[in-house]
Amino acid sequence: MARPSVEAERREQILAATREVVAEMGFRAMRVADVAKRSGASTGTVHYYFETKRELMQAAFEWNFHASQARRTPVVEAHEDPRDRLRAFLDSYLPVDEVVVQSWHMWIELWTAALHDTDLRELNENVYGEWRRTVAGIIRDGQDRGYFVTGDPVLLANGLVSMVDGLALQVLLGSRSMTLEQMRRVCEQSVELILTEGS
After folding, report:
1. Residue 36: inside a domain, yes or no?
2. Virtual CA dihedral for 150, 153, 155, 159, nearest 10 degrees?
3. d(Cα 148, Cα 142) in Å, to the nearest integer?
4. How many C-beta atoms surround the C-beta of residue 70 within 10 A?
5. pTM (two decimals)
6. What parts of the chain have a pLDDT lower than 50?
7. Which residue range or ranges hold the HTH tetR-type domain (predicted)?
8. Nearest to 91 by CA among 167, 20, 155, 172
């Protein structure tokens, strides 16, 4: 049996490969053999870690969330000022590089699959709730310092997060009306709209 560190590394490679394959062809079209080939493992090895395609999918969604969270944590922690923190956090959502684009594809696949899967809806509820809480926490901190307008920080966070989701979807679809730069400007303007006068 492989050592725990080797097993963890192989599992990580399989999940990263799953994200790449899903981003290219979607979850429905993806085969375990596609993931095995991309990760440099055998189909049997993939099944050693994940008995079914559905189990692989759920693990990949969870892994994608934690990987996204790990990328954004230093972004958030780099800024003491909640205004800068919120701008940086929203900017980190922009589909500017291959990894972020792949992550967005995973989110879209999760939402699509969750329409018909109670377990995946619960997974979405849990992991997506973390994003909302992070944004609400930044807004609450800014309100406490007098930088952001008063109001329910959860409602404000939900508005921002939902807006970013919709914008990113349009960018990923190649909309001529919503380019990456237009998305960036809308996000910047949205932060300006919740700033208090003079802040």
Report:
1. no
2. 100
3. 5
4. 9
5. 0.87
6. none
7. 8-68
8. 167
